[in-house]
Amino acid sequence: MGKSCEIKLLGTAPSHFVNRVQFVLNLKSIEYEFIDENLNCKSELLLTSNPVHKKVPVLIHANKPPILESLIIIEYLDEVYHDIHPILPSDPLERAHNRFWANYIDTKYFPLFEELRRTPGIEGKKEVKKQLDEASELLEEVFVKSSNGKAYFGGDDVGYIDVVLGCFLAWIKFVEKLNKFKIFDEVRTPKLLEWTNRIWSHEALKDAICGSEALTNHYAMLQIKKP
Amino acid sequence: MGKSCEIKLLGTAPSHFVNRVQFVLNLKSIEYEFIDENLNCKSELLLTSNPVHKKVPVLIHANKPPILESLIIIEYLDEVYHDIHPILPSDPLERAHNRFWANYIDTKYFPLFEELRRTPGIEGKKEVKKQLDEASELLEEVFVKSSNGKAYFGGDDVGYIDVVLGCFLAWIKFVEKLNKFKIFDEVRTPKLLEWTNRIWSHEALKDAICGSEALTNHYAMLQIKKP
């Protein structure tokens, strides 16, 4: 270890992108300093660290140039701290498939939740929910293949896709409650439903996700900013 | 080597995403079978290989499950054939920065070219061109830092960012000709301009990019499909 205290993470609690980094830091037992950002009034450190996107998470390791984008940060951590709880498999083909599905989750799955939020009216939301159901069923298939009968996408232990999708669970639960429907259920996604319960109680994740009050406030802010 | 004949690449010549894979295969002197796809009538092999996005490039290595998405494919090739012309640096921090800028090029820089195409009228296009100039100047800065006085983003030899941006040069030249303006010039981006000439004549790229006639046809098809 030794490197652990040298890590600063700029983030905000309701961001599942930030939570991914926290989850991996926890899995690898790396100590870090969390610098809480107010996204309505971004700090000088955030603006100079990420002048292109001006977004969290930002990871600063030993005062070296900042590392940006959640997937890039967790892959960096996995490369630097590869001996402790590796999250990406060592086989290049499996690594490629992990990256593909993480990318699918970020560019296809999550945007459907955003579309659900923006779409007005019950009928409109129903249409988006149908697409969400299809996407969730696809992820169920991915889980069955990846886990190979074991507990996680990563097999016996939490892996890359577990981190990426797992950190979104607080939001999924929030969306379920808000819309009075289920994203994961016994019929369409029985294995993923079991997985959600398993990963939800994982010690390393518990510490990384925020409560529903913070999510409610954050959601309200989103609704005001981008109606 | 030995593995070289076992590679099949499903692609189409005017796609700079496909060209990236060809460029890396050439750099690493890997033989491969190119399967030309007609995107107006996609093959059964493409549809079953990439049922999610139904897009090229698709790489099939030794009849194993297909690998999808250009950046994921070239990273896979770099991991499997790591002894021959590595394209990603070995330092985790530098790797992270390479991934960040590749991601920037794909999600911020290229979409500006798409916006330019879709925006009607000279005044509208001028506005997009202004954003493109700012983005190109940013890439000039990245080049200066990354190349450290050497020939390429990757230093003495072609690296990850060179591949990602380099394969787009045919399109950039096409857009310059079509709109009668320059994307890279002596004033705003002098170093990148030199780099374009250098990489344009690189043996491994020459073979990977198609002529302007094919681009003209492809562009015309895009204009019809998504006006």
Q: Strand portion of chain A, in percent?
A: 5-15%
Shape of chain A: globular
Write the element-wise H/E pattern of chain A from the N-terminal end onward: EHEHEEHHHHHHHH
How many strand units of chain A?
A: 4
Top-tier CATH class of the largest domain in chain A: Mainly Alpha
Helix content class of chain A: 55-70%
Radius of gyration of chain A: 18 Å
Question: Which regions of chain A have little confidence, pLDDT < 50, spanning 5+ residues?
Answer: none
What structural class results from the helix and strand content of chain A? alpha+beta
Quote the distance from N terminus to C terminus of chain A: 46 Å
Oligomeric assembly:
homodimer
Query: Going across the major beta sheet of chain A, what is the strand order?
Result: 2-1-3-4
Walkthrough of the structure:
Two copies of one chain form a homodimer. The first copy, chain A, has 227 residues and is of the alpha+beta class. The first copy, chain A, has two domains: 77 residues, Glutaredoxin; 134 residues, Glutathione S-transferase Yfyf (Class Pi), Chain A, domain 2. Helix content of chain A is 57%, strand content 7%. Chain A is built from ten helices and four strands. Chain A has a four-stranded mixed sheet with strand order 2-1-3-4, covered by helices on one side. The longest helix of chain A is centred in the middle third of the chain and has 27 residues. Chain A is globular, with a radius of gyration of 18 Å. The termini of chain A are far apart. The relative contact order of chain A is 0.13.
